[in-house]
Amino acid sequence: MRHRAQSRRRRSTLAVLATAAGLILGCSQYQPLVTADLVRRQIDERVPVELRGAIELPFELDAATMAAVDAVISPAGSENQRAQDVVAYIFSRLDLKYALTPTRNAIATHRTAQGNCLSFVNLFVGIGRHVRLNPFYVEVEDYQRWNYADGVVVSRGHIVAGLRVDGNLATYDFLPYRVKGYRDFAPIDDVTAMAHYYNNLGAEALMSGDAAAALEHLRIATALAPDFEKGINNLGVAHLRLGDTAAAVALYERGLALNPESVPILTNLARANQNMGLLEEANRILDQIEDVNRTNPFFFVYRGEAALAAGDSALALEYMRRALRTDSEVPEVHVGLLKVFLALGDVERARHHLDRALRLDATHEEARKYAALLEARFAESGG
After folding, report:
1. Shortest CA distance to 261 belongs to which of 296, 223, 227?
2. Is the separation of the CB atoms in 170 and 162 below 8 Å?
3. Fewer CB atoms inside 10 A, N or C side of the chain?
4. Could you tell me the maximum CA-CA distance found in the chain, to the nearest angstrom?
């Protein structure tokens, strides 16, 4: 099954992928698989008291949102009809637009009609459950997102919505750039999904330079899911940004105990060792990554920027091109190439990669800074 919804203006892509499920659901009376009260009890079991007051359920709807949905979608239709109605409501009536940041809860996504993939899933889950469906969160394990800034790698996962419709499993996704051919799906419970939500908020705070806000979000993320590798990595980044290198190293070691080959964590551990003056250990870690993992573009961006800082533009270009061959759809790769070509005096190629970076992420802060810089140079030259 595949659904596509397009707005009247330029539409982001809604990819709806479905695979047959082995379990056929019966037609018994509707019973919600997950309730807000159950999730809150699970939160209380995992999260320290001092953090609980700051936690929201990102899929919860308010009265205004529920009233808007009730005016359009009947809970009495078939499962398939209700699922189609939810998709139509979000992408046709609400006319949801893709916005990379911030990650929004269901209420804010509905109110602004904007959101990223996780924002969309929060809204889909909230509306779906309201109309007597049982949607759930699904982590896509073979598609991850990283951001690179100031020598560290910030990690995020990718979440889609899952739903069993008339006995078949369907996944619903909101992607702005291209349809992905996912292979590895893992349904996750609401509390783990909330860890992803707070990890996203923490990652966004880190990328905007607010390490203190990031620390609070990421403490919640890692309390909700203590073995959440991405949250552990980003919490380490927050401590590193706040100058607590020892706390960062302890978190990276904890993360490596879960995944000894995590490229983001190893890269950030190398940076922590550099900050402590342990250059030999840092280089050993970087060489270890290069030996065992050649699939993470951010590692090559990291090595390229290090080479550029050392004045070796040729080596920097080699690393950036390796990053490009690994994944050409990452804006940080193009920003890295932009920096190298500027250092080499090749403004035309620098502009090309700036354009690519902004096409992939029009909100990318570093790319926008370079755009302003190049625009100022162009104006000064009288071009």
Report:
1. 296
2. yes
3. C
4. 73
pLDDT the model gives residue 31:
55
Token pair for residue 367?
A: 């790319």
CA gap 320, 336 in Å, rounded? 6
Q: Which pTM does this prediction carry? A: 0.77
3-state secondary structure at position 53: coil
Distance of alpha carbon 321 from alpha carbon 307, whole angstroms = 13
pLDDT tens, 159-189?
899 998 877 888 888 865 444 455 667 889 9
Per the DSSP assignment, residues forming a β-bridge with 189 are none
Three-state DSSP class for residue 181:
coil
Instruction: Assign 3-class secondary structure to 229-282.
Output: HHHHHHHHHHHHHCCCHHHHHHHHHHHHHHCCCCHHHHHHHHHHHHHCCCHHHH
Q: Omega of the bond prior to 102 within 30 degrees of 0, cis?
A: yes
What is the per-residue burial (b if ≥16 Cβ within 10 Å, else e) of 20-32? eeeeeeeeeeeee
Q: Please determine, for residue 261, whether its predicted confidence score (pLDDT) is greater than 90.
A: no
Which domains, ranges and CATH numbers included, belong to the chain? Answer: 1-240 (no CATH), 243-293 (no CATH), 296-383 (1.25.40.10)
Q: Mind listing the pLDDT tens digit for each residue in 300-331?
A: 887 888 788 889 999 999 999 998 998 888 88
Beta bridge partners of 282: none
**For residues 126 and 62, what is the distance between their CA atoms, to the nearest angstrom?**
10
Length of the chain: 383
Q: Which residues lie below 8 Å from residue 337, measured CB to CB, with a gap of 6+?
A: 317, 320, 321, 324, 349, 350, 353
